[in-house]
Amino acid sequence: MKKITIILFILATVVSCTPNGEIKIAEGSFESTEVIVSAEGNGRILSFNAEEGANVIKGQILGKIDDRQLVLKRGQLLSMREKVETQRPDIGIQVAAMEEQLAVAKAENTRIANLVAAKAVSEKQLDDSKAQVTILELQLDALKSTLKQNVEGLAKESESLSFQIAQLDDQISKCVITSPIDGTLMTSYAQEGELASVGKSLFAVADLDCVYLRAYITAAELTTCKLNDTVKVRVNYGEGGKRYYEGKLSWISEKAEFTPKTVQTKDERATLVYAVKVSLVNDGYLKLGMYGAIVEGK
């Protein structure tokens, strides 16, 4: 284990040596990172099973907020989208009749052209036949253009309704209350039957498998340690009971501050220090708020 000599302040600032030769650098209390889960929907809380102290897993359902109005609105939008889809024209069927007319007119035009070549009919009949073909071609192009615009307009309307349905699906899913992480429920802020609104705190959950000891290091000693240094942490249990843990210096504040008010003397509180965190793996015996000591030696 790499040994580092740092002076840490939180409750005591005098380094002490125990009878067994163990040097206590400083004491601190164990903390964890809590996640406060807030409501993402509005409505009455229909069910809520967030018992403090219970272990939960990520994604576990803990309750539900009333989503009836959202479900009804979604059903209405689905009906509207279905109606729009039924109004979408079949371009192939719509233009088939006119294409058939155009094909007949072209065949007639060819027949008349042959008769004109044989001097069996007048040129005027051929001109009339050509004009009829041209008119039908223009009408067919106009019909195709109109039908295409109608289809595109209905497609956009259907797409807009689909987006609205997706928004409602998202809102409905947010009415289900779940845990965002694996951890332990620390505090419950709501009860079944209460009205929830977006942003209302529902419960707090923390991962107690990984905790950290928060302490403070003086500016003078800051150069003697660095991130990821390994330190020894001692925790006392009752009379004479002790447990030792290896911790890692996982965070050092970039800004100096005055020693917290929990330090007893005025002179000590006037000392500029840097906050640090020592991360540890919890074996189940470490509790939040419990005191631990950073030690060296035996």
From TrEMBL:
A GO CC term? Answer: efflux pump complex
- In this chain the Multidrug resistance protein MdtA-like barrel-sandwich hybrid domain maps to 35-206
InterPro entries tied to this protein: MdtA-like_BSH (IPR058625)
| Domain of life of the source | Bacteria
Q: What's one Pfam family the UniProt record gives for this protein?
A: BSH_RND
GO MF assignments: efflux transmembrane transporter activity
- UniProt name for this protein: Multidrug resistance efflux pump
The organism is Sphaerochaeta pleomorpha (strain ATCC BAA-1885 / DSM 22778 / Grapes)
Lineage of the organism = Bacteria, Pseudomonadati, Spirochaetota, Spirochaetia, Spirochaetales
